[in-house]
């Protein structure tokens, strides 16, 4: 009899510990709303669509931060997705098997480096390189595009996007690798049996099957990029403006929180910054949920349309 | 049908392109590690580990108080975060297959992607606002909240590696479920759980964003958890964005210290995992 009491006790203790995870998430949402209430009370929608950010005169428009976050994340995704997918394909489908543990170790190391160290490297290595080599070259060849105009100062959207690309690369490539592992070997064998080259097998059999998972991996990377703070704060230039050129200095949502929160003047300023955090929280919650669902879809079995 | 020569050329060039992507990923890593080690080593003396930061231009000075501050905050974070995270992970591994378990797992997964700066604001709301000043406790709470979801998922994965036959053998001998869980499954998974904990500690030690407005910074020695406290990461940030050459050097040296700390923890985690995996199979 006593044994059953023990079992029931153990199972309820475990259930309680699991429930704590849900409680913690609830607490996070509650606190965010509580801290940001003063600003939300002052008009929440207006707040997102205006550009002026001037805590002294009490105007809090978040548009330039949202813009900066979107632009840097877009650059990061545009660079990191091809690199990560290429890397994952090379490691799991093409390259010599002995290379795999070495490169995986390198990628894991990349994931373990703290973001402030990335920022340091970005500030003193990436930014000067962009200023002296990359941006002048881009300007010479693509200067007619509005994306690459203005003085090459190094600090700016491009630097922010590139450092993000390096930082989200481990996330995207490792999830892509997991996804590729779930592709049944028989698909590849079938393609090879029909005389396909390795690339044709990948293109016609592996990639269609893995596509939702790779999309999920990219979304996970995007989620990380949107919320990444320190490295971007150190290289984006921190000026609350909107520019079409990637060379210009900008600002991002997490960066403004990082720079201003500790010295925020008054409840409305704190509230406005917490409101930005709430926006960030909402976006990353959605992206992460969507990404997880996509990755699980692939893991569970044949995706629709994988003819 | 295109000629087989053309198809083979396409195949080779795509392979080369993908190989180039591997290089593109590894080069920044190489550059970063090399620069942190070479630049950082220049300023690394014994007193760098033991002395307080000095004002600009004054020679010497180090990050002793920041190392202590990071240790205190990560330690406090472990006290709060490790039991919760590991407990939730054990729950997921042991009885996480029902609807409730799936909900917890999904929440933990989604929650682990929440930006750390957002968690900093939560800790600010819970600790800093009621206390009216910044403190190590607030920083530690932020780090603990960040630990829980990832730790839960890693713990689950590593506990699930315990072969089902062990559990079945124990149950077949008439041992109750809870004793089987505690004495057979968890004892076998102890190495895996330790690995998960070490990884969580490494991640917490490298966090900067949530500390900026919870523990703030401190130029002096501090061991009181209710006072603002220096941390290695915030110190690196402040040194790096300063306009002084002398402080940039300190940023590199402090970054080297941080990398050694985080890298050491990661290597330890790897070692423990490998040892316990080798032992578990016997």
What does this structure look like?
- The complex is a heterodimer of chains A (307) and B (282).
- In chain A, 76% of the residues lie in helices and 1% in strands.
- Chain A has 307 residues and is mostly helical.
- Chain A has one domain (2-300): MetI-like (MetI-like fold, Orthogonal Bundle), CATH 1.10.3720.
- A two-stranded antiparallel sheet of chain A has the order 1-2.
- In chain A, strand 1 (53-54) and strand 2 form a beta hairpin.
- In chain A, helix 1 (2-41) crosses helix 11 and helix 10 (253-260) runs antiparallel to helix 11 (266-300).
- Residues 303-307 of chain A have low confidence and may be disordered.
- In chain B, helix 4 (99-111) crosses helix 6 (136-159) and helix 9 runs antiparallel to helix 11.
- Chain B is an all-alpha fold and 282 residues long.
- The model of chain B has no long low-confidence stretch (mean pLDDT 91).
- Chain B is globular and about 70 Å long.
- Helix content of chain B is 76%, strand content 0%.
- The interface between A and B is large, with 87 and 90 residues.
Features:
heterodimer; A: 307 residues; mainly alpha; 11 helices; 2 strands; disordered C terminus; B: 282 residues; MetI-like fold; 2 domains; 0% strand; globular
Task: Please state how the strands of the largest beta sheet of chain A are arranged side by side.
Answer: 1-2
How far apart are the first and last residues' alpha carbons of chain B, in Å? Answer: 55 Å
Radius of gyration from the alpha-carbon trace of chain A, in angstroms: 23 Å
**CATH architectural name of the largest domain in chain B:** Orthogonal Bundle
General shape of chain A: flat
Number of strands of chain B: 0
Query: Which percent range describes the beta-strand content of chain B?
Result: under 5%
H-E order of chain A: HHEEHHHHHHHHH
Number of helices of chain B: 11
Quaternary arrangement of the chains shown? heterodimer
Total strand segments of chain A: 2
Uncertain residue segments of chain B: none
The main sheet of chain B comes to:
none
